[in-house]
Amino acid sequence: MGRLINLRHLKIDGTKLEWMPMEMSRMKNLRTLTTFVVDKHTQSGVGELRDLSHLSGTLAILKLQNLADARDALESNMKGKECLDKLELNWEDDNAIAGDSHDAASVLEKLQPHSNLKQLSIGCYYGAKFPSWLGEPSFINMVRLQLSNCKNCASLPPLGQLRSLQNLSIVKNDVLQKVGQEFYGNGPSSFKPFGSLQTLVFKEISEWEEWDCFGVEGGEFPHLNELRIESCPKLKGDLPKHLPVLTSLVILECGQLVCQLPEAPSIQKLNLKDCDDVAVLRSVVRLPSITELEVSNICSIQVELPTILLKLTSLRKLVIKECQSLSSLPEMGLPPMLETLRIEKCHILETLPEGMTQNNTSLQSLYIEDCDSLTSLPIISSLKSLEIKQCRKVELPLPEETTHNYYPWLTYLWMERSCDSLTSFPLAFFTKLKTLHIWNCENLESFYIPDGLRNMDLTSLHKIKIDDCPNLVSFPQGGLRASNLRELFISNCKKLKSLPQRMHTLLTSLDKLWISDCPEIVSFPEGGLPTNLSSLHIGSCYKLMESRKEWGLQTLPSLRRLVIVGGTEGGLESFSEEWLLLPSTLFSLDISDFPDLKSLDNLGLENLTSLERLVIWNCDKLKSFPKQGLPASLSVLEIYRCPVLKKRCQRDKGKEWRKIAHIPSIEMVDLDD
């Protein structure tokens, strides 16, 4: 490669390259080199970069642990590469011995980049200290810095002196105990550290105990928008006292934190997890501008929550997770402007406040998950989205009279492993519903529409997905008047006897139909399937498969994709004449799980002149394609777990190869591949 002396751009990021070609130093005209990999077994060290002075954009130097001599790092002349914008320096040896620490520090010291650099990332560095150049004020263009897994550095460099720095992330350190004056740096009396910093992240600093804040007038982070402290289990304090423009504060898994939260008049988002000190929680009330609050695994939440919510009058979103002491929410204490409420894994919570019916008329989204003691929900007519998951005891509020509508604006409803008391679902009470997803509701037996609403059009309904409802038997008598329904998915409903009636006239917009593991469905409804159907999946529906000659797929002018899954019962060795008539419009065909099938003869594949994709799965005994061959239009053939057929399709020598040789893309994967 060294002979390519006029090459300008070499992009090799994302490859599995283990070493660099020899004589790269001759490629003096290179403008772009995304990656340089150091290999200890070759002579191609970073010194090869010496004369590549025109490099620009991004450069990642990887596997620096393989650098045998720190003098090679100096030879790289990184300081002379003034056009580089972003530099990544990465060591990858987690088993470095103690003696290597000095070597790594010496290497990093000699890899000093040009002061024009804008972004720097140092990863898996195992030296005991950072280089002297890191944090120098001369790096006036540095806007982003990431120090990741520099686990042996007991102190931080003076990063506060980087006057243009906007984004700083410090992740994974095993020895740092204190962040103090050295972090901020020194300067004249008018010096304000971190004058441009907008985002600051501390994460997984296992021994960090103390943050000695700088304490300058106006705050040491005058432009900080986001502060995130995560998985620092020994940190006690302090936090910066005043952050005038902070909008997001996230403190996760800092169980020993005992200080107050910063004064932050502009804050909008607060996320607290595993922060049990009362002082931390009580100081939330000093942040009345918060619009989003998330609290997780906080034992004192039951006592403190009423006071907090009373003060946070601007709150729009409230998320409560894994608070095992939470048995109830304040009866009248949820903020009136609340739009989203999400509660997860609060196992002793029994009810939500009835007062929400009158007081929370702005609430649009309610999400409840894994609250196994919850028994009831209030009626909230403003809801647009309702999700109930793993709440077996909860009862879905339903009106007793057809003239009442509890859900006039609800467009999205997801019920999963919940509402065991619900045996019949009244579709007509959800007039604006667009998406309905019901999964594993064990006692649901039917969908119904009351007699007085039998002619109601469910024109808003676009998607229905029903999965794993073992006792579901039927859809409403007369069918679904859902002229805009586009997707209908029904899976693993063992007792369901039939699909909705009059599908061909009532579901005129239906585009996708998925039916799987419904063994009691005997046939499609009278009149057949809607003519707009473009995608059909039929899987493991044995009785339905027996009526395949009556499916009438050849009459569906829009059908483009068909998936047929036979199931594990087996028995079918070959297709008989007219086993299944397929439309010539098919673009994609999947055939799966016919364990005894030996041939694809008589399926009429040769007549599918629009077919471009054929996929065959799990047909262990299948050994041949049709005698008439496959259509010339086919461009993709995929064969998975068909060992006999795969062997017979070997390039140039398999008995079936001549039938598929014209196909541009062929993929064959066996069970052991």
Give structural notes.
The chain has 673 residues and is mainly beta. Among the domains are: 1-134, no CATH class; 154-267, no CATH class; 274-357; 560-672. It is built from ten helices and 32 strands. The strands form four sheets. It has a 26-stranded parallel β-sheet. Helix 5 (301-311) links the parallel strand 15 (292-296) and strand 16 (317-321). It is flat and about 85 Å long.
Strand content: 15-25%
Number of H/I helices: 10
* Spatial separation of the terminal alpha carbons: 34 Å
* DSSP, total strands: 32
Mean pLDDT across all residues, rounded? 91
Characterize the biggest β-sheet. Answer: 26 strands, parallel
Looking at how many chains there are and whether they match, the oligomeric state comes to single chain
CA radius of gyration:
33 Å
Spans of 5+ residues with little confidence (pLDDT < 50)? none
Structural class: mainly beta
Shape verdict: flat
Can you give the helix content as a percent range?
under 10%
